[in-house]
Write a structure and sequence with these properties.
Length: about 270
């Protein structure tokens, strides 16, 4: 290609790039506190869900792990099962009359009767177990990577994966999960962000910034751990969040921020 033609071509390409629309930033959402509820400040929350008027919660740490049925209004534990001290309890999900629980590094999960917490069976998986949620047809599992596993609800065998990205970049440390209106909400571990994930594409379509709330909790004068725990009451359209060792559970309402930032680049 001659020098003149090359110069003309570069000029055309540069102009086209300038006119091309820039990729829109992933929307940022803020959260307004609707109501607060007591939460056990000794609960190292790993899994949280709302079912038939109660919260179900799993807690972690070896020797302290448990599954619990909790009264929302008071935070009172009405049913509890302690996990064997060798296991670090992780996420939970309910399917039919089974409460299904992961453990962190033991590559084994447990299945309980949801009404009595009586152990029924166990199941195995490779790698770490972090969190669980479900839609009407599948169970979804996080393992600390940028992939969500799709599990068969009957056998809990893996049937596929969802690769999670933000502006095209993989996002690791996907933690506690909740199915909300066709999206998977996920805590991103070690951040104050909740990702709203499109389960069809794995793309993060919104980021909920809870930094202000985390600062407010920490200002309460006690040591608290990271944000973790999302529960959704579909019938009442209520969204609840808490954290590990947090003394409060919050009902929140999300709103898009008109001056939102591009938060994808801030995810470690």
């Amino acid at each position: 290609m001659g020098t003149l033609k090359a110069a003309v071509w570069i000029t055309i390409v540069t102009a086209a790039m300038a006119l091309a629309p820039a990729q829109a930033a992933v929307p940022e959402y803020s959260a307004a506190i609707v109501k607060t509820y007591p939460h056990d400040p000794q609960a190292f929350t790993e899994g949280l869900l709302y079912h038939n008027g109660f919260l179900y919660e799993s807690t972690g740490r070896e020797g302290q792990s448990s599954i619990r049925k909790v009264r929302l209004q008071t935070g009172a534990v009405v049913l509890k099962h302690d996990i064997d001290k060798q296991y670090f309890g992780e996420g939970i999900v309910i399917w039919d009359n089974r409460l299904i629980e992961l453990t962190w590094k033991n590559e084994v999960g447990f299945i309980y009767d949801v009404n009595t917490f009586k152990p029924r069976s166990d199941f195995h998986y490779a790698g770490e177990g972090w969190a669980l949620t479900r839609d009407a047809f599948h169970v979804f599992m996080s393992d600390g990577t940028s992939d969500l596993r799709i599990l068969d609800p009957a056998t809990l065998a893996e049937s596929g994966r969802i690769h999670v990205t933000c502006d095209g970049q993989p996002v690791k440390n996907i933690n506690e999960l909740e199915w909300v209106k066709g999206e998977i909400y996920a805590n991103i571990w070690l951040t104050t962000l909740i990702a709203r994930i499109n389960p069809s594409t794995g793309e993060i379509v919104g980021l909920v910034n809870l930094n202000g709330l985390a600062i407010e909790v920490a200002a309460g004068g006690r040591t608290v751990d990271v944000l973790n725990g999302i529960a959704y009451d579909a019938a009442g359209d209520r969204l609840f969040i808490t954290g590990k060792l947090w003394p409060t559970l919050y009902q929140i309402k999300l709103s898009p921020k008109t001056d939102g930032k591009d938060l994808c680049s801030s995810i470690p």
